[in-house]
Recover the amino acids of this structure.
């Protein structure tokens, strides 16, 4: 199977055709081998226009949503990024291509270990990964220029706002379990402003600072 050709088609038809034209972002999606971040039996669908299960009741988002969230962060290559919800590690790899450093937290140990192995095999050296409650962020390495949350929360976890740098950006799916709004949060003068991007559906964020129980 010609995965490079499938990535090219994915970028052209699913991402660029929907209005994402940042060449750095497009190049990252052309480079990162999505099929290496999903279960072997699903590789045939690795570059398809829909989410895929990755085990533990979790999913890898459709390529366009990953690209949209990444593009909205406005990465220049100098940022320290916190990712909440490592999942398969695919979004992590995309961030690592576009930012200086990536710190990623995954509450499910098995997924965290699988993602860490996939990211090491891909050769990334600018990623730190740990298993834990993502709603608490990663205080040890705060503050962060950008924060991305890849699970849905009815509220913006307060520790993440506290760990976001002044003039930083945070993106997350905001809302209840069956329907959310992808939301951009910007921090200016210690206050936050929010902007709604589009409707979306993500698995729930679970942790101390979401409304779900640990």
């Amino acid at each position: 199977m010609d995965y490079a050709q499938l990535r090219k088609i994915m970028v052209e038809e699913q991402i660029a055709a929907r209005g994402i034209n940042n060449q750095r972002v497009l190049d990252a999606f052309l480079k990162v081998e999505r099929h290496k971040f999903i279960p072997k039996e699903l590789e045939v669908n690795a570059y398809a226009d829909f989410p895929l299960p990755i085990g533990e009741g979790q999913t890898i988002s459709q390529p366009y949503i990953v690209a949209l969230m990444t593009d909205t962060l406005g990465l220049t290559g100098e940022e320290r990024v916190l990712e909440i919800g490592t999942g398969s590690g695919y979004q992590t790899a995309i961030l690592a291509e576009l930012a200086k450093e990536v710190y990623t937290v995954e509450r499910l140990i098995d997924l965290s270990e699988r993602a860490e192995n996939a990211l090491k095999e891909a050769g990334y050296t600018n990623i730190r990964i740990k298993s834990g409650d993502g709603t608490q962020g990663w205080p040890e390495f705060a503050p962060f220029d950008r924060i991305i949350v890849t699970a849905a929360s009815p509220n913006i976890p307060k520790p993440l706002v506290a760990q976001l740098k002044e003039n930083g950006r945070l993106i997350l799916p905001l809302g209840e379990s069956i329907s959310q709004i992808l939301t951009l949060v910007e921090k200016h003068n210690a206050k936050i402003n929010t902007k709604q991007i589009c409707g979306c559906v993500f698995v729930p964020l679970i942790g101390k600072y979401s409304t779900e129980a640990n």
User: Anything to note?
Assistant: Strands lie at 52-55, 58-60, 80-84, 101-106, 127-131, 144-149, 164-176, 179-188, 191-200. The mean pLDDT is 95. The radius of gyration is 16 Å. The chain has six helices and nine strands.
